[in-house]
């Protein structure tokens, strides 16, 4: 997973005026960065701790290449939903319908390919379209009719669940065509000579490392061009080495099993893409602005209604994608698919630093939050903890994360 | 005349960084109507909050004597038990409860927690008769007009056996007819032995109902006058309100020389705005103003004069309902129905309420500055972060925004620095016309001077500036021309040479005679 993490990790903003790379200055620099991104680093550290703990408790099973692959596949759909949910929550809304919509899209895919023998790529496109339509209908009601998102999506939750059961006539429908199954469940194809490693995955890792380095160097040069303060050279090299090492470790882990799961590639593209949009695109800025202070955003000329509409449209498409991944992975569409997914996605966002009142959060945060829940799930499964206790512990994790946040804010506020 | 019912002695109230009241003394006689007046920010509302226990005993200095006893109110309930009831400018009614439920809210006619409806309705009907409100007590408060809601508030006060009734600008939101009724009611209650304190800007109202008037300025009592005495003219009251000290400092300005023939940068003709809810009320009534390039034009007015409402309605209809009027930019008629259109035509509005309408407090300085013109640092929908940061750094230096980096959340800055961020944001948008609404409200003297300097530079660059302010000295110090507004209407236009605080205040307190 850390391929995504590293690709997105923002350069810790260099504080002004600290050009000298003295030992004290370096430490100060790191402390400043840490303080500014306390929430994100805090969760990253927590995630690291959880991983280490479970690694010890499971006697090293957690980080076995096979289990890492598994972890990705098990959590991919929640992570996809969490990305969309993060946008919704930053905009100051909530979406309760995504679990049901996920099931509904899965059912649509099954009816199209199994009952009507439609070619699967076409079915995929149609399914994404169904998600877009569902999302835009809800978005229209929320943005333009002014119905609260909680109500609209609560209705959507009931409605899509009902439609799923009608579509499937209460039965599980499958199996899916091979191609779709492979897309949701499979790995990158095996090519080239036998190296004991998965070649394509290795190649991908190398390309990723190269692009990360290139990106960082280019960024640094641009900063200098604009005469802005940059990280001291020592720090910059240190950071590059850390990034490269992280990508390398994950690549080797995955490459020593069956290679990178296709879903991981999709997820990686989404994380990098959405991270970029939220950070650098005008659209992303406008989402933060309307969530942070709606009247001020309106007075600044932000088209708040259109942005809200687009956020829900986007959520619909991502929910459809998650629905396809779930269906392909289970190789069947079930009327009970996707139950509670909305809650998992919402929990991921809040663990990852979103605020109930909107305006705060990052895509990376949603992924970290989702992974915290995912690793807890997976680790407890390995330790054969019952689902009863799993729920209790996940609930406590959510409380602890947000509680820490509140405590941290109060401390710095007063 | 009867002796004092209330004495407030040497009241001092300090908020973090601001001394709101420094040595205020107020004496109110039994059975009189006592008016308090003063400019915005003179400390009227704070004084009343001290009296009613909103600011509890211990958070201020000085002492309060009510009916010759020293009082230590720890909250509103304590002051209400003594018979002191305050009716705030923003009415404190629950819109979806009935009139009767509102009257007895927190004070229900109940036995063991269950409400006795017969008792409640009977008592409510009596109270409504006393205040002259002809409505059924089970009517929802949301279904009656603001004027009637004001009467419900008074009925509520009467239900608490009020001895001293405090009304904070009771007619600010009312039309002439409702104002007249309300003032009559105050006189009626006076006959029943209820003492009232009325805070008001409207001098004609004060003359009509009040027996004496206490004038506050800059958190101090200036004087108490007998309204019925012959020498207490409106001019006399105005002189007390504005004082004569001009100790503010302003950058040297060369007055603007109007260019011959050139059309005004911005011209507003016959602008009328209706209240967003009460559409019978015109909050801005047929106002026409113009401003030329390089000129700073002030708009003076007291609370409720309609200045902000005018500016916000012109700027993308962000307040109220548009009724009529046209906007011309450089002589050509333009549409400003949305904020985007207004900004597109080179108009910027810098709000009076930076925390609610100006800034995203949880976001950083650079992102706040770029928000209204993101397109300038973006290509094909993608923001160039480096360019954005460079722009923000530029403003941090040129505007002297005191922050370690531009990545600091705006919420952590002081008021003056926040104001500089809001100004930077709109200067970055590159407008031709800037409408500045109370640009120096709530910031310290040093920052004020810096902001005046920026405004002066903007005008020198050929931008047209509309400067809305409640502080007359700063309008006098900065503007080439000053419009005055009162109760939604334009009441005067004064060139720099003729402008004095007295002249402006006379125009600002001009109001139609209260009818009835």
UniProtKB/TrEMBL annotation, chain A:
Pfam families: BPD_transp_2 (PF02653). Keywords: Cell inner membrane, Cell membrane, Membrane, Sugar transport, Transmembrane, Transmembrane helix, Transport. The chain crosses the membrane at residues 41-64, 76-98, 118-135, 142-160, 197-215, 236-254, 260-277, 311-330, 350-376. InterPro entries: ABC_transp_permease (IPR001851). It is found in: Cell membrane. Its main location: membrane. It comes from the Bacteria. It is a multi-pass membrane protein. Part of the binding-protein-dependent transport system for D-xylose. Probably responsible for the translocation of the substrate across the membrane. This is Xylose transport system permease protein XylH. It comes from Streptomyces carpinensis.
From TrEMBL, chain B:
It comes from the Bacteria. SUPFAM superfamilies: P-loop containing nucleoside triphosphate hydrolases (SSF52540). Keywords: ATP-binding, Cell membrane, Membrane, Nucleotide-binding, Repeat, Sugar transport, Translocase, Transport. SMART domains: AAA (SM00382). Signal peptide: none annotated. InterPro entries: AAA+_ATPase (IPR003593), ABC_carbohydrate_import_ATPase (IPR050107), ABC_transporter-like_ATP-bd (IPR003439), ABC_transporter-like_CS (IPR017871), L-arabinose_ABC_transporter (IPR053466), P-loop_NTPase (IPR027417). Residues 6-243, 268-512 form the ABC transporter domain. PROSITE patterns: ABC_TRANSPORTER_1, ABC_TRANSPORTER_2. The keyword Flavoprotein does not apply. GO terms for molecular function: ATP binding. The keyword Membrane applies. PANTHER family: CARBOHYDRATE TRANSPORT ATP-BINDING PROTEIN MG119-RELATED, XYLOSE IMPORT ATP-BINDING PROTEIN XYLG. This is Multiple monosaccharide ABC transporter ATP-binding protein. The lineage of its organism: Bacteria, Bacillati, Actinomycetota, Actinomycetes, Kitasatosporales.
């Amino acid at each position: 997973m850390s391929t995504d993490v590293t690709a997105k990790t923002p350069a810790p903003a260099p504080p002004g005026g600290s050009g000298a790379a003295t030992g004290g200055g370096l430490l100060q620099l790191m402390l400043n960065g840490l303080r500014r991104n306390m929430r994100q680093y805090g969760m990253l550290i927590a995630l690291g701790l959880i991983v280490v703990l479970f690694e010890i408790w499971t006697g090293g099973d957690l980080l076995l290449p096979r289990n890492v692959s598994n972890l990705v596949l098990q959590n991919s759909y929640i992570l996809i939903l969490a990305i969309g949910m993060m946008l919704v929550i930053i905009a100051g809304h909530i979406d309760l319908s995504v679990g049901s919509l996920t099931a509904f899209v899965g059912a649509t895919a099954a009816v199209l390919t199994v009952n009507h023998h439609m070619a699967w790529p076409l079915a995929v496109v149609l399914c994404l379209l169904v998600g877009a339509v569902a999302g835009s209908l809800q978005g229209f009601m929320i943005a333009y009719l002014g119905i609260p998102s909680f109500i609209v999506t609560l209705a959507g939750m009931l409605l899509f669940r009902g439609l799923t059961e009608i579509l499937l006539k209460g039965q599980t429908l499958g199996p899916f065509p091979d191609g779709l199954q492979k897309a949701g469940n499979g790995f990158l194809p095996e090519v080239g000579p036998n190296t004991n490693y998965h070649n394509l995955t290795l190649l991908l890792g190398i390309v990723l490392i190269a692009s990360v380095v290139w990106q960082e160097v280019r960024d640094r040069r641009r900063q200098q061009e604009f005469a802005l303060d940059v990280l001291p050279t020592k720090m910059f090299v240190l950071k590059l080495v850390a990034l490269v090492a992280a990508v390398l470790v994950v690549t080797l882990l995955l490459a020593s099993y069956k290679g990178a799961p296709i879903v991981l590639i999709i997820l990686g593209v989404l994380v990098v893409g959405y991270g970029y949009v939220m950070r650098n695109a005008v659209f992303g800025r406008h989402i933060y602005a309307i969530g942070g202070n709606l009247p001020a955003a309106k007075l600044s000329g932000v088209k708040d209604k259109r942005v809200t509409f687009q956020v829900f449209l986007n959520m619909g498409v991502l929910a459809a994608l998650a629905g396809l991944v779930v269906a392909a992975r289970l190789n069947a569409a079930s009327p009970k698919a996707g139950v509670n997914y909305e809650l998992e996605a919402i929990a991921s966002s809040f663990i990852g630093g979103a605020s109930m009142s909107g305006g705060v959060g990052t895509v990376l945060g949603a992924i970290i939050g989702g992974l915290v829940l995912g690793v807890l799930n997976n680790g407890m499964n390995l330790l054969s903890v019952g689902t009863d206790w799993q729920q209790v512990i996940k609930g406590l994790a959510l409380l602890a994360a947000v509680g820490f946040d509140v405590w941290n804010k109060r401390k710095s506020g007063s | 005349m009867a002796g004092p019912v209330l004495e407030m002695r040497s009241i001092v109230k300090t908020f973090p960084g601001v001394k709101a009241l420094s040595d205020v003394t107020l004496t109110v006689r039994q059975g009189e109507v006592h008016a308090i007046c003063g400019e915005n920010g003179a400390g009227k509302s704070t004084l009343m909050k001290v009296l009613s226990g909103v600011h509890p005993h211990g958070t201020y200095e000085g002492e309060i004597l009510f009916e010759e006893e020293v009082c230590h109110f720890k909250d509103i309930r304590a002051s209400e038990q003594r018979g002191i009831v305050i009716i705030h400018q923003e009415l404190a009614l629950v819109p979806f409860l009935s009139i009767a439920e509102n009257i007895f809210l927190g004070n229900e006619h109940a036995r063991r927690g269950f409400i006795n409806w017969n008792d409640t309705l009977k008592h409510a009907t009596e109270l409504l008769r006393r205040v002259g409100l002809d409505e059924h007590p089970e009517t929802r408060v949301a279904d009656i007009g603001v004027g009637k809601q004001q009467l419900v508030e008074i009925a509520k006060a009467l239900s608490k056996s009020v001895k001293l009734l405090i009304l904070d600008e009771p007619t600010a939101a009312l039309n002439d007819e409702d104002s007249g009724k309300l003032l009559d009611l105050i006189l009626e209650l006076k006959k029943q032995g209820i003492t009232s304190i009325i805070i008001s800007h409207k001098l004609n109202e004060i003359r009509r109902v009040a027996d004496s008037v206490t004038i506050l300025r800059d958190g101090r009592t200036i004087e108490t006058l007998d309204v019925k005495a012959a020498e207490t003219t409106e001019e006399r009251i105005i002189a007390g309100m504005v004082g004569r000290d001009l100790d503010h400092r302003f950058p040297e300005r060369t007055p603007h020389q109007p260019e011959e023939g050139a059309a005004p940068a911005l011209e507003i003709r016959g602008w009328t705005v209706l209240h967003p809810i009460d559409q019978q009320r015109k909050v801005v009534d047929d106002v026409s103003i113009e401003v030329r390039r390089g000129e700073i034009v002030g708009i003076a007015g007291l609370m409720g004069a309609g200045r902000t409402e005018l500016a916000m309605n012109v700027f993308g209809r962000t307040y109220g309902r548009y009724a009529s009027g046209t906007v011309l930019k450089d002589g050509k008629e333009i549409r400003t129905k949305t904020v985007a259109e207004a900004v597109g035509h080179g108009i910027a509005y810098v709000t009076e309420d930076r925390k609610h309408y100006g800034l995203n407090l949880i976001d950083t300085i650079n992102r706040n500055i770029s928000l209204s013109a993101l397109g300038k640092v973006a290509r094909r929908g993608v923001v160039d972060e480096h360019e954005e940061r460079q722009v923000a750094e530029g403003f941090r230096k040129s505007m002297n925004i005191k922050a370690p980096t531009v990545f600091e959340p705006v919420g952590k800055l002081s008021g003056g620095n926040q104001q500089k961020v809001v100004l930077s944001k709109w200067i970055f948008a590159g407008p031709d016309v800037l409408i500045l609404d109370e640009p120096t409200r709530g910031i310290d003297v040093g920052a004020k001077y810096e902001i005046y300097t920026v405004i002066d530079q903007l005008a020198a660059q050929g931008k047209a500036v509309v400067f809305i302010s409640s502080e007359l000295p700063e309008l006098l110090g900065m503007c080439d021309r000053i419009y005055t507004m009162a109760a939604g209407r334009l009441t005067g236009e004064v060139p720099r040479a003729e402008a004095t605080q007295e002249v402006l205040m006379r125009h600002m307190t001009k109001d139609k005679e209260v009818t009835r």
